[in-house]
Amino acid sequence: MHPNPLFRSEDRELQEMLIDQIGFGMVFCTTPDGPRVAHTPLLSTGDGAIQFHLARGNALSRHLDGATALVTINGPDAYVSPRWYDNRDTVPTWDYVALELEGRVRKMDEDGVEALLHALIERHETRVEGERWRAEESSEATWNGLRKGIVGFELEIQARRPTFKLSQKRTDHERERIALGLELSGSPALAHLMRTLAK
Fold first, then answer.
1. In this structure, is residue 199 part of a structural domain?
2. Does the predicted model carry a pTM greater than 0.90?
3. At a CB cut-off of 8 Å and minimum separation 6, what does 42 contact?
4. From CA 36, how far away is CA 158, in angstroms rounded?
5. Distance CA 90, CA 50 (A)
């Protein structure tokens, strides 16, 4: 988390939207073999927990149950050029959105993992253009093969550390120029957040 309090937001609805829209993140945990990270789809339960699954053979899978872990969700990010400032006698920076969630992890039971998989499929298939795919299209052998190969986890969120670094230290005029520059250089999502959140 960035140390400047100007870049923090305690808006829980905004944080939940970020988890929902991104839907993917990284799980970090210290293990007897050293620090490890896994990349995984994420699903908020809406009541203070986040669920995910990992391959059974993942280096983290055998260490997470009962451990304290950190989940990070990275939103849009981009380089910010000094050419967009009123005074070019400065240095470049990077604007970004990120959310860190820390908490105790528990291994999910088989019913919980099944529900998680169906919830993830439902969530993401509705976002894909065209005819939706359904889990029932998998044969029993295919589905059971998937299920045997993964482990589900739920992290009970005990700390939230959001960063919304959106050039808040700049004037309104500069922020609009930065947003336009970001749009033109291929970062429209960050430009949109700058215009809507950094006011």
1. no
2. yes
3. 19, 22, 23, 24, 25, 50, 51, 52, 71, 73
4. 20
5. 40
- Measured distance CA(74)–CA(24) in Å, rounded: 8
Tell the residue number behind the tokens 């120029």, with chain if given. Answer: 177
Place of tokens 């033109």: 184
For 109, phi then psi, to 5°, come to -80, 175
39-70, pLDDT tens digit by residue? 999 999 999 999 999 999 999 999 999 999 99
- pLDDT of 199: 61
CATH number at residue 46: 2.30.110.10
| Chain centroid offset of residue 151 CA | 20
pLDDT of residue 9: 86
Looking at the domain assignment, is residue 155 inside a domain?
A: yes
How many domains does one find in the chain? 1
Note whether residue 26 is domain-resident: yes
81 located within any domain: no
Whole domain around residue 155: which residue ranges?
5-75+95-167
* 123-143 burial: b if 16+ Cβ within 10 Å, else e: eeeeeeeeeeeeeeeeeeeee
CB contact set of 94 (below 8 Å; sequence gap of 6+): 77, 78, 79, 80, 165
Q: Residues 94-106: pLDDT tens digits?
A: 999 999 999 999 9
Radius of gyration of the chain (CA): 20
The sign of the torsion formed by the CA atoms of 81, 85, 88, 91 equals: negative
